């Protein structure tokens, strides 16, 4: 029998695919800035062919980036199959900014690229190499569909291209031979077995638990309580804000950056985690931003959806390994220190709650039975306005990295927008700096840069209080 291969999308991955429509583009992305000198040719132009060769070399360790979508007959469930027509030139694209190549022009270009959906007939990623950025730099704008990557694995292809030293050598790419997909009958049979495994495992676990009735009853009670708590959260809508309008297809992108040493000083003085400082800074800036737009922030119920990675150490497998938690943010609290302590308490309670277990239970149940369970749960949460904004924080390398000898100066991540979610905030820590990426609907938030300025001001307020002598 000839060797065949395919990978089934989990219920969570399939949901990211199904949530996409003409206005909702479910891709994650990052804008990275590099010094240009090591990659300039004799004519002063960027050697894009070398960048493309480095991408090809990295693809050997990231097979998902050579796969495209297919469907299981009858079930219509999406799967990954190797693309026999894979063309690297289509995915790695070259462009340049008009002079003088300012950061504002780069942000506008990023917004236009992020406004375009990925072609579902091809592997779901693109990488734009942008030369002519001020300060003798170039940029890479990389985007990939959320159904194939999360915030950590989404950086995998970029990470494979980087070195910890300014080494300009390119490892020869291995030979790639696309694996044929199995026929429809094989995939249907596999799917029947996959979906039957859950009830079979449930019956087996129940039979094994007959000799441990107290343990069995306790586990069932915990699962029921977790589901009740998770579903109850979805029944409590937040306050409607200008961040929760119907969105269109066009995007804005803005960014800012903060010193991680300042974050450490804040934590040393007031306690909490890095993520507490992030959420507190965001809450202060969002409160001021929304108040100028007429929102009663003192009495508002405002929640952030905070993705929490469930990846274990060393797991770089493509796909999503995250749990979506909901955390109330005190956007009406004007005192930065009080706000930080309130956020810390809220996050501690959230982590101790059954939310995480309940969400994981729904994901597992959906993946093993009917994927529409999780899909409908996600759509219901969005329609009910269970949360106002997504804020996600991904750890990165603590020291400089290099692309073919070119040092990466900064990297700004992006989280996609869902229905009635006009703003997404993503963060990436790199080389002693915390990078904020602000992704917004073009029409809903024409003043996005004001929020970026507000983040700087709130962070500086908190830092000054942390370093003020007693």
Report what the structure shows.
By secondary structure, the chain is α+β, with helices and mostly antiparallel strands. The protein has 2 domains: 7-161, Chloramphenicol Acetyltransferase, CATH 3.30.559; 233-395 and 419-467, Chloramphenicol Acetyltransferase, CATH 3.30.559. 38% of the residues lie in helices and 21% in strands. It contains 13 helices and 15 strands. A 6-stranded mixed β-sheet has the order 5-6-7-2-13-12, sandwiched between helices. Helix 1 (11-18) packs across helix 12 (372-383), helix 8 crosses helix 13 and helix 9 crosses helix 13. The N and C termini lie far apart (76 Å). Residues 311-320 have low confidence and may be disordered.
What is the third-level CATH name, the topology of the largest domain? Answer: Chloramphenicol Acetyltransferase
Strand neighbour order, sheet with most strands: 5-6-7-2-13-12
E-strand count? 15
Please tell me the overall pLDDT: 86
**How many helix segments?**
13
- Quickly count the domains: 2
